[in-house]
Each structure stands twice: as C-alpha cells, then as structure tokens.
C-alpha cells in the first residue's frame, strides 16, 4: 500500500517535472494552431520595412541582441518610460543608436489583427531578426517560439550588461559566457557587423590612436570623422558590402580593417584569430554557425508558461 502510494507520488512528481521542462522549452511550432498565419504576417511587415530602408535589416538583428542581453529575450527593450518603468531605450548602448522599434510595433499591429493577444512581442523580435537575416542574404533558421513579454525593464541592467566598443577580448568573452554563449558563438554573432553602420564617436579612438589598423583605411575614415565633432556621422561596419550578409567582415579583420576596437580584438593575436580566419575562408560555415548562435542567443533568460504576459502594444505593459 505504502509502496503504491509512493509510486503514485513519484509519478505525479515526474509529471510535475515534465510540465516544468515543457514550459521552459520553446518550439518553432508554438503558434501553429493558435495563430497559423503569424509568421507570414511578420515576414511581410519586416520585408516591406527593409525594402524601404535596407539598413533596417541590421537594426532588427541588433535589437534582438540588445533585448536578449538585458533580462533575457523578453521584449523589455521595447517598453517606454513610465513612472514605474525605466526604459532601456535611453541606456548608453541604445540611446540615439538602437533602431526598429516602430517596425516591430507595426508587425505586432498586423499580428494583433489576425490573432489578438496571442503572439508575444519577444517572439516577434526574434522572428524579425531571422527574417532580416534571410532577406539580405544571411541564413534562415527555425526560430523557437513561446517567449512571453516582461512587465518590467531595466536601464540599469542595460547599462551594465551590453558590451561596449572599447572592451578587451577577455572582457567580451566573459560577458558572452555569462549568457551561455561561447567565444565561437560571439565571433559568429559579431559577424552581423557585416551589416549596418556605426557613429563616429564609437570608432574615433581607433582611427586616431590604434596601431593595429590599416593606414589607408584609417585615413579614409578620418575624413568624415574628425578628432572633434561629427559624433553621429555614420560609417559602414563592413567597408566592402554593408548591405549584404557575407563574410567580408572577417576578411576585413584579417587586413586590420575592423571599424570598432571590439571588432579588431577578435583578430589581434588572441584566442579567436583562428575562428575569424576560418570564417573568412568558409562563408557557409559562418552562416550556419551564425544561425545556430542566434538560436542559442534567443534562449537567454526566457519567460514562458504563465510568467509575464502577452503585451497588446509592445511599448507598454497591459
Ligand atoms: C561583441 C560585442 C559587441 C559590441 C561591443 C558591439 C558594438 C556595436 C556598436 C558600437 C555599434 C554601432 C552603434 C552606433 O554607432 O550607433 C554596433 C552596431 C551593430 N551591431 Fe554590434 N556589437 C557587438 C556585438 C553584436 C552582436 C552579438 C550583434 C548581433 C547578433 C550585433 C549586431 C550589430 C548590428 C547589426 C549593428 C548595426 C546596426 C545598425 O546599423 O542599425 N553586434 N555594434
Ligand atoms: C589619442 O591619444 C592622445 C595622446 O594620448 C590623446 O590626447 C587623445 O585624446 C586620444 N584620442 C584622440 C581621438 O585623438
């Protein structure tokens, strides 16, 4: 009798554990029955945004990164400032820099029209990043779904956890390690600097004071980025093909033509040189590793099950 009760109790306990495991697991099929057209609605919105502004592909990929590194992939980055919410939009790495908030909101509006209250803003950011990658020649990959949206945000955490352009390789590796990502994941993800633009103030020190920089490249960049002023003037992170997803970023690094200090540290005699060199020779390997690393990044700090909420509007808590 006691043995039977014990067996029943342990069976129930197993169900309980299984339930926890299921809730913590995302799945690409999460909306297949609750909102079968969600993914195509998002893709349409994202494609039209990028067709009108090619740089938006870069900005959407970066938005997913800056969401996931702060409280996890919970769309905390989309919340506006209120008396109870410290918006992350004004954190150091985001202010006058992160873009694409309105593109995500537009996609959310379209999805709300077909299935109100079902699809999270956090999932829309993750899908948007994938759609952006595939639209400009990067990999496509199955995005796992089922994230829920936060009811909080933290500018303090955003300031503390987003990596900065002047950090050492060791410091960058340790930041990614704390999020469950390896140095190899970090190099692959940094390969998204094959797209997009950076402001003069982020690479000024590098083009005037670094010695590990190609002289011709530095002098070209100095023309539009003086020692003083023009802080917000843009330059492409990949000088060769800033609008298409390819492996030129890694080839640039091997010629000391990385724009940011945090780019060039990936190929500067340290432990990641061999990865950069591998990706410069093998674009297919770069793309498949990038897709896997994006999926891994999308698993950081999730809210699932009944945690958090499905926001109706991405910029405000319900
Ligand atoms: C390794 C640490 C990283 C540092 C220090 C870093 C730093 C930066 C900086 C300073 C900019 C320019 C921002 C501006 O001037 O307004 C930038 C742009 C960008 N970053 Fe990173 N980044 C890192 C990793 C990543 C990762 C992991 C991703 C994506 C998975 C990413 C995607 C992008 C993209 C696509 C842009 C261009 C955005 C646009 O044009 O709107 N970065 N990054
Ligand atoms: C470069 O180094 C010099 C000497 O240390 C310093 O005065 C200057 O502010 C640094 N930065 C730039 C952009 O010139």
From TrEMBL:
GO BP terms in the entry: hydrogen peroxide catabolic process; response to oxidative stress
Enzyme class of the recorded protein, top EC level: oxidoreductase
Active-site positions on this chain: 66
Cofactor (UniProt): Ca(2+); heme b
Compartment annotation: Secreted
Predominant place of localization: secreted
Cofactor note: Binds 2 calcium ions per subunit. Binds 1 heme b (iron(II)-protoporphyrin IX) group per subunit.
Xref: Pfam families: peroxidase (PF00141)
Residues engaged in binding heme b: 193
Catalytic activity: 2 a phenolic donor + H2O2 = 2 a phenolic radical donor + 2 H2O
Covalent S-S links between cysteines: 35-115, 68-73, 121-314, 200-225
Residues that bind substrate: 163
Plant heme peroxidase family profile domain segment(s): 25-318
InterPro entries xrefs: Haem_peroxidase, Haem_peroxidase_sf, Peroxidase_pln, Peroxidases_AS, Peroxidases_heam-ligand_BS, Secretory_peroxidase
GO molecular function: heme binding; lactoperoxidase activity; metal ion binding
GO CC aspect terms: extracellular region
Keyword field: Calcium, Disulfide bond, Glycoprotein, Heme, Hydrogen peroxide, Iron, Metal-binding, Oxidoreductase, Peroxidase, Secreted, Signal
Functional description taken from the UniProt entry: Removal of H(2)O(2), oxidation of toxic reductants, biosynthesis and degradation of lignin, suberization, auxin catabolism, response to environmental stresses such as wounding, pathogen attack and oxidative stress. These functions might be dependent on each isozyme/isoform in each plant tissue.
PANTHER family associated with the record: PEROXIDASE, PEROXIDASE 72-RELATED
Similarity section: Belongs to the peroxidase family. Ascorbate peroxidase subfamily.
Record-given protein name: Peroxidase
Species for this entry: Populus euphratica (Euphrates poplar)
């Amino acid at each position: 009798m006691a043995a039977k009760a014990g067996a029943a109790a342990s069976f129930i306990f197993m169900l309980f554990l299984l339930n926890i495991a299921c809730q913590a697991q995302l799945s690409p099929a999460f909306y297949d029955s609750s909102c079968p057209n969600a993914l195509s609605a998002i893709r349409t919105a994202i494609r039209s945004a990028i067709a009108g502004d090619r740089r938006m592909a870069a900005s959407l990929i970066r938005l997913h990164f800056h969401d996931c590194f702060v409280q996890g992939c919970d769309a905390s980055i989309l919340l506006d400032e209120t008396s109870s919410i410290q918006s992350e939009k004004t954190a150091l790495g985001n202010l006058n820099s992160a873009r694409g908030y309105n593109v995500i909101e537009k996609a959310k509006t379209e999805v709300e029209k077909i299935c109100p209250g079902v699809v999270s803003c956090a999932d829309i950011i993750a899908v948007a990043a994938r759609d952006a990658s595939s639209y400009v020649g990067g990999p496509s990959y199955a995005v796992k779904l089922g994230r829920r949206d936060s009811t909080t945000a933290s500018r303090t955490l955003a300031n503390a956890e987003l990596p900065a352009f002047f950090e050492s390789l060791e410091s960058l590796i340790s930041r990614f390690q704390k999020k469950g990502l390896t140095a190899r994941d970090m190099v692959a993800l940094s390969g998204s600097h094959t797209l997009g633009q950076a402001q003069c103030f982020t690479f000024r020190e590098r083009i005037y004071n670094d010695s590990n920089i190609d002289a011709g490249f530095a002098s070209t960049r100095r023309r539009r980025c003086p020692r003083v002023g023009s802080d917000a003037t843009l330059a492409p992170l990949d000088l060769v093909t800033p609008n298409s997803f390819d492996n030129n970023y890694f080839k640039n690094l091997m010629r000391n033509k990385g724009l940011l200090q945090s780019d060039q540290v990936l190929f500067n005699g340290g432990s990641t040189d061999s990865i950069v060199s591998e990706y410069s020779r093998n674009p297919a390997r770069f793309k498949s590793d990038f897709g896997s690393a994006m999926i891994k990044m999308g698993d950081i700090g999730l809210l699932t099950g009944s945690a958090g909420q499905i926001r109706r509007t991405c910029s405000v808590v319900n």
